[in-house]
Design a protein that fits this description.
- By secondary structure, the chain is an alpha/beta fold.
- Helix content is 41%, strand content 10%.
- It has 13 helices and nine strands.
- A hairpin with a 5-residue loop joins β7 and β8.
- α6 crosses α7.
- The protein is globular.
- It starts with a helix and ends in a 16-residue tail after the last helix.
């Protein structure tokens, strides 16, 4: 079953790196994961394919590559269009960790939550952003500017209302450095759920689709080219969870990243919920927020594929 499959992977223990993290974190307070093996192993211990000549597979992400991106990236006219700086929030997540519930909590408050957007960049654009951050290949950053264009309507409408925007869509997470380059007062939150439970939810409810980040085979010569790697869905889910953790670690080397436990939220931990409200800047009474987390939202029980 899904949970047993997860437990047999080296990632079952390795993905606990942030499980007990509380409060503001830095690169020093998040241990860097270096699991044994090739990093993508399932119950069947399927090997990773070798990358083609002049190509490579997505692996780790260096904090220096994020800083190098910030040093070279110019938001251009997008920055000129913002005449009022607000403390917008971007939530980093894998999905299946309570973003829909958070969206419903924040609706109608002094912040503007977005779980779905009017426009999306293509999957290939998200993949290119990921590969450029991993490789430090910042010569062509049109993918980052394209994402800025796709999100302009949301934050400009938030500015018009005088309310900070809270970005909740996990597809956008890889653009966190772009978000911070545009919003100097911006804040990053890593909404993190027990990875075993996330794996089970992805696997049992068929939630991991081709729109997610994947361990691609890619190259930048002469331009960005990629191919799907020959790995199972279970391997991709393991990789995706691990990469998200590594990405959060890399982000924390440059920015302050608030780690919020989704498990504690749904356990109605008043202290964790109070921290969430504080970082969001939300004017929601604590007792109301605690009561909110007593109800599951977006459980998608109808999509269960079997009993794990």
């Amino acid at each position: 079953n899904a949970r047993a499959c997860y437990a047999k992977s080296p990632f079952g223990a390795g993905l606990s790196m942030l499980r007990h993290a509380r409060g503001r974190v830095s690169s020093e307070s998040i241990p860097h994961q270096d699991p044994e093996g090739d990093g993508i192993v399932t119950c069947a211990a399927e090997p990773m394919p070798a990358p083609p000549e002049n190509g490579r597979l997505i692996s780790d992400i260096e904090p220096a590559h994020i800083q190098a991106f910030l040093d070279i990236f110019d938001p251009g006219f997008h920055a000129d269009n913002i005449d009022r700086e607000l403390p917008h929030v971007m939530v980093i997540s894998t999905g299946r960790c309570g973003t829909m519930s958070l969206y419903h909590l924040l609706r109608g408050t002094n912040v503007v939550p977005h779980h779905a957007y009017w426009w999306h960049v293509s999957v290939a654009t998200r993949w290119e952003m990921m590969c450029r951050l991993v490789d430090g290949a910042h010569e062509d950053l049109s993918c980052a500017k394209l994402w800025l264009s796709s999100r302009a309507a949301e934050w400009l409408s938030a500015i018009a209302m005088g309310k900070p925007m809270v970005a909740l869509n996990h597809w956008d997470a890889i653009f966190a450095p772009v978000f911070m380059a545009l919003h100097p007062r911006g804040k990053l939150v890593y909404l993190r759920r027990d990875p075993e439970r996330v794996f089970e939810s992805f696997h049992r409810k068929d939630q991991f689709q081709g729109n997610q980040l994947e361990p691609l085979i890619y190259e930048f010569n002469p331009g960005f080219r990629w191919a799907h790697s020959d790995v199972s869905q279970e391997q991709m889910i393991h990789w995706y969870l691990d990469f998200t953790e590594r990405f959060a670690t890399a982000l924390a080397a440059t920015f302050e990243v608030e780690v919020i436990s989704a498990d504690r939220l749904f356990a109605q931990d008043a202290g964790e919920i109070a921290r969430l409200l504080d970082v969001m800047g939300a004017d929601i009474p604590l007792d109301r927020a605690v009561s909110h987390y007593g109800t599951k939202i977006n459980e998608k029980a109808h999509k269960l594929m079997g009993v794990a």
